[in-house]
Amino acid sequence: MWIVGLVLVALGVAGFLMAQRTRARRHAMIAAETQPIAELEEHRRTLADLGTVRGFRKVCEVVGAAHPHPDGPLRAPQSGVECVWFRQTVVHKYSEQYRDSDGDWRRREQNDTVLDDTSRQGYALVDDSGIIGVDPNGAAPDRPEKVHENFVPGGQGPSGGGFFHGGSQSLGMTYTEWVIRPGQQLYILGEVHDRIGPLVIGKPESSSEPFIVSTRSEEELKASAAGAQRWWAWGGSAVAVLGIVLVVVGLL
Prior knowledge:
The structure is a single chain. By secondary structure, the protein is an alpha+beta fold. It contains three helices and 13 strands, in the order ααβββββββββββββα. It has a five-stranded mixed beta barrel. Helix 1 (2-31) runs antiparallel to helix 3. The termini are close together. 23% of the residues are buried. Mean pLDDT is 88; it is low at 156-164.
């Protein structure tokens, strides 16, 4: 019993840490200023006029519409949808044999991710005042659009499954894809810099600063973070208290 209690205490601590992380993310959005792109460009030019070239750095929020890279939009590999960013996954679904607590053989379904690929090409964000580059840095945006999901059963999958092998049976492959289309309204919290010349917003150099790219508005994100913070804090506290009780009872 006390071992179960220790596990619950550990889960409670993890919940508390998640609550703190969510709180920090929400406070970062509250503290950051949403700035028009033209205003950021003016700050950059002023700094350059004072002799500081490619030294502009500012953590802030930018809101605008996604715009393709100068080389043109991407094509999502599975669906062919035109986009500025995509993520594709391939998950192998199979069943395997196992022994239950009574020693009887049973079967259960399992999933194994064989591909999880995200585009790395940059794109741009456009507001009423100008345009700024976006360096996605491999980060997954919040709430991208799911445009494709297809399950290919058995031997039709690339694994050549549909047969038993070593107690496992391949059931098939699930192909899924998410995108950000050109014109999609985005909220981005990151660090604006001019290290390559033109202004770009991307992941902050400081690991303590969040990098958020979302199809949701700032208000929606803050409301969601507040709810998640309460859930993690209350849930973590309840689990930790229960764990402490079990540890005490188990040691008595």
